[in-house]
Design a protein that fits this description.
The protein has 11 helices and 6 strands. Strands 3-5-4-6 form a 4-stranded mixed sheet. Strands 1-2 form a two-stranded parallel sheet. Helix 6 packs parallel to helix 9. About 20% of the residues are buried.
């Protein structure tokens, strides 16, 4: 919880989920993460609830607000059931979705998420998201659904693998894709809503962190810059030599050749291309070092079967 709107909806959210869970499950608990809200207001919303409901609630108060993904991670660290559900307040009137996700999981799926059909964003945010997901799909091996809600059900073994990825630059949707496991989606009408607590500047900075952490986009960009610099250097050298010999540049215009001008152009073009080459080589080394210090598991075993 990180907004007053969510605190106001908390009682109805808990009541609806409790009624749904008691019909289908014998053991469950609610892990609430207080991410910057007034703890007294949360306790006031919980106290009027029935004792049977309240004894299943575990409230985790964070000392300082963090981004939404890290707040969700705090709750996932505390979860200890066979299945864990991250349930957004956008679906406060649809608690039956928990049972629907669980039934889908019984078909052999370890991760089940809700999939939207649209995203309600400003034009600037919509452009940022399009570029962001294009880079993720083009420059990484991860298959991330851009229409996925945060709400999802995760099996115990998938959650254990997810919690092994202890990264500071955490982007849960990428981590879900990174751990793999059999995944399914359930379409819903509710659109994806922008996070009101996060400004556009913060979203942009977060996008840069994710792009550098999960893709090879910047390394590929430096390669194209190097190739472009070589083309520019070749064109500049050819033009300098042509002017030196004919006093006519590559555009057909008459140019008076100056003493030493051709030598300087050739020298600057060569060093420009070499500088871009060195930057590209350094980016490869930095990318390899960055991948090593993350200490991601080399593989994740989904299951073992003996015959």
């Amino acid at each position: 919880m990180q907004s007053h709107r969510e605190v106001r909806q908390l009682a109805a959210w808990l009541d609806g989920l409790y009624s749904e869970l008691t019909k289908n499950f014998s053991h469950f608990e609610f892990v609430l993460v207080n991410n910057g809200c007034d703890s007294a207001s949360i306790e006031d919303a919980i106290q009027p609830l029935s004792e049977d409901l309240r004894k299943n609630i575990f409230l985790l108060n964070l000392s300082t607000p963090v981004n939404r993904d890290n707040a969700i991670l705090a709750g996932l660290d505390r979860a200890n059931g066979d299945y864990t559900v991250v349930f957004e307040f956008d679906f406060v009137e649809k608690p039956a979705l928990v049972t629907q996700m669980w039934e889908t999981a019984q078909t052999g799926k370890d991760i089940v998420y809700l999939r939207a059909k649209e995203r309600r964003l400003s034009p600037a945010q919509r452009l940022l998201y399009r570029i962001f997901y294009f880079i993720l799909s083009r420059y990484s091996h991860l298959r991330i659904d851009p229409w996925a809600h945060q709400t999802r059900l995760i099996s115990r073994r998938a959650l254990n693998s997810l919690l092994r990825l202890r990264e500071n630059s955490r982007y849960l949707k990428a981590n879900y894709a990174l751990v793999g496991y059999s995944t399914a989606s359930i379409p819903v009408k509710e659109p994806l809503q922008p996070d009101q607590a996060t400004s556009f500047g913060e979203q942009f900075r977060s996008a840069l962190v994710v792009v550098t952490s999960f893709t090879t986009f910047l390394r590929s960009l430096l390669l194209w810059i190097f190739l472009f610099s070589v083309l520019v250097a070749v064109a500049a050298i050819f033009n300098a030599v042509k002017v030196k010999l004919t006093n006519v540049d590559i555009f057909g215009e008459h140019v008076e050749s100056l003493s030493g001008w051709a030598f300087l152009v050739v020298l600057m073009s060569v060093f420009f291309a070499l500088t871009c080459l060195i930057l590209y080589v350094m980016s490869i080394y930095l990318s390899n070092i960055y991948s090593e210090i993350k200490n991601r598991p080399l593989y994740i075993i989904e299951s073992v079967r003996r015959f």
